[in-house]
């Protein structure tokens, strides 16, 4: 049981004496929800703090500006704000949430959308947000007309082939041919360019992509400074992994970035190194849990599509969360979370093929096409770890099914740290 409840941004946080595994907390919650028809998402504040500590360790000197679009959960934002993190916003709504909820001040926001909605740009300017990104001459004119005091960060296109979501097609100018021309045009129009940004692509698996971008940035800085632009900001964008694995880790990326910054920008005190991580912070703190409300026995080959399974049993489970809700990350982010039953067995029961379906009438609402679990009962819960990126932020209530409700938890030490603000990033 929790020791006490703390309020954070108007939300109750269950505070436990010691850190607890998300499965244990989810089990306790589910046990009290026998009649509930709603799924839930559990948020661990300790995991948010741990991500921040890992960032400080692996990328010292690089200030993270969390990309709000990835997950705009207010408690996540409040926790990051208390740690001194800045914010990458792309809309008026995101900006207002950061300012009005007292999460951070305008100077800790970068308006990181190369093609800005005119009304949002005026609003950002009025609030005193100092910088925005741009990648075209058209945007330079827009900035000059609507936000004359705002400084520009030039977004270049320098994508990584291994990235699973490539952003280079939509945004970013050519770093060799386009950037010098835009710097000249900015000078003529009267927009001050203070730095260069990039997004190597989401879930980039090659740390050298960042090194390549930093090398381009160095040349662009040389050009810009020679034209009289006060260039100081090196913005490394997003793409940092939510989960470390054998293919990629923050440690591997950090090592490459720090070496490249030392090589190309050795006088670090002259520069501001920043990044816009989204999934890096949002993925692991969020655990989803959903209840089985329907179970159909079928031939296993209907699930596995293997002839030899024709005489075996398989199950179709229908749960109260789906791809329109928390599992929207499947479509929007190409992430395929894997379920576990919330109540474990001793491992001796046979695992049978199963399909996990979302609750809506849409046949595309399929959470897991083929998985293997012991035979599960109606009323049992499944859970999924690490589901915080581009999931609840893109959830809708299609077909009238409610979105997951959030529950928050922390241990006493974590809560103290968040409340005191002692752990603030100093860069
Ligand atoms: C400008 C910008 N910065 C940062 C991010 C965050 O990317 P990620 O979640 O891969 O770190 C995005 C994602 O689309 C983006 O467009």
Task: Using brief descriptors, characterize the structure shown.
alpha/beta, Lyase, Ornithine Decarboxylase, Chain A, domain 1, TIM Barrel, 2 domains, eight-stranded parallel β-barrel, 13 helices, 31% helix, binds pyridoxal-5'-phosphate, ornithine decarboxylase activity, Orn_de-COase, polyamine biosynthesis, De-COase2_C
Structural commentary:
Helices cover about 30% and strands about 25% of the residues. By secondary structure, it is an alpha/beta fold. It has 2 domains: about 10-45 and about 285-410, Lyase, Ornithine Decarboxylase, Chain A, domain 1, CATH 2.40.37; about 45-280, Alpha-Beta Barrel (TIM Barrel). The strands form 2 sheets. Strands 1, 2, 3, 12, 13, 14, 15, 16, 17 and 18 form a 10-stranded mixed β-sheet that branches. An 8-stranded parallel β-barrel has the order 4-5-6-7-8-9-10-11, surrounded by 5 helices. The mean pLDDT is about 95. Pyridoxal-5'-phosphate binds near residues 88, 238 and 239. Pyridoxal-5'-phosphate (PLP) binds near residues 239, 276 and 278. One of its GO terms (biological process) is putrescine biosynthetic process from arginine, via ornithine. GO terms for molecular function: ornithine decarboxylase activity.
* Average of pLDDT: 94
Number of helices: 13
Please state roughly what percent of the residues sit in beta strands, choosing from under 5%, 5-15%, 15-25%, 25-35%, 35-45% or over 45%: 15-25%
Provide the low-confidence segments as ranges. none
> Biggest sheet, open or closed, and with what strands and sense?
10 strands, mixed
Helix content: 25-40%
* Secondary-structure-derived class: alpha/beta
Under CATH, the topology of the largest domain can be stated as: TIM Barrel
Instruction: Report the top-level CATH class of the largest domain.
Output: Alpha Beta
Task: Tell me what the CATH architecture of the largest domain is.
Answer: Alpha-Beta Barrel
């Amino acid at each position: 049981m929790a020791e006490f409840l703390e309020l954070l941004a108007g939300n109750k946080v269950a505070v436990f004496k010691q850190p607890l595994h998300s499965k244990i907390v989810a089990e306790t919650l589910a046990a009290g929800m026998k009649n509930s028809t709603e799924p839930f998402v559990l948020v661990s504040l300790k995991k948010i703090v741990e991500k921040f500590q890992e960032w400080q360790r692996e990328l010292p000197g690089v200030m993270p500006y969390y990309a709000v679009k990835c997950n705009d959960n207010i408690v996540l934002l409040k926790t990051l704000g208390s740690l001194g993190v800045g914010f990458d916003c792309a809309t008026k709504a995101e900006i207002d949430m950061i300012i009005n909820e007292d999460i951070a001040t305008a100077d800790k926001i970068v308006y990181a959308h190369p093609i800005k909605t005119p009304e949002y740009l005026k609003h950002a300017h009025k609030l005193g947000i100092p910088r925005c990104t741009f990648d075209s001459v058209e945007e330079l004119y827009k900035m000059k007309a609507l936000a004359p005091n705002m400084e520009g960060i030039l977004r270049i296109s320098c994508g990584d082939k291994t990235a699973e979501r490539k952003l280079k097609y939509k945004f970013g100018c050519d770093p060799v041919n386009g950037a010098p021309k835009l710097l000249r045009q900015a000078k003529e129009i009267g927009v001050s360019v203070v730095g260069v940004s990039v997004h190597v692509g989401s879930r980039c698996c090659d740390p050298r992509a960042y090194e390549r971008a930093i090398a381009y940035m160095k040349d662009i800085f040389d050009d810009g400074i020679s034209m009289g632009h006060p260039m100081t900001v090196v913005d490394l964008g997003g793409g940092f992994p939510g989960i470390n694995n054998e293919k990629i880790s923050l440690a591997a990326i950090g090592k490459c970035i720090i070496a490249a910054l030392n090589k190309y920008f050795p006088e670090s005190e002259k520069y501001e190194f920043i990044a816009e991580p989204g999934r890096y912070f949002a993925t692991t703190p969020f655990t989803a849990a959903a209840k089985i409300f329907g179970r159909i026995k079928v031939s296993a080959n209907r699930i596995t599509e293997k002839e030899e399974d024709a005489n075996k049993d398989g199950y179709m489970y229908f749960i109260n969360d789906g791809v329109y809700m928390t599992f929207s990350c499947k479509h929007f982010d190409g992430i395929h979370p894997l379920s576990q039953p919330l109540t474990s067995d001793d491992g001796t029961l046979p695992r049978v093929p199963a399909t996990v379906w979302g609750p809506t009438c849409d046949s595309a609402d399929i959470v897991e096409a083929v998985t293997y679990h012991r035979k599960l009962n109606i009323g049992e819960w499944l859970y999924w770890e690490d589901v915080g990126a581009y999931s609840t932020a893109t959830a809708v209530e299609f077909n009238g099914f409610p979105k997951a409700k959030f529950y928050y938890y922390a241990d006493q030490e974590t809560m103290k740290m968040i409340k005191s603000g002692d752990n603030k990033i100093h860069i």
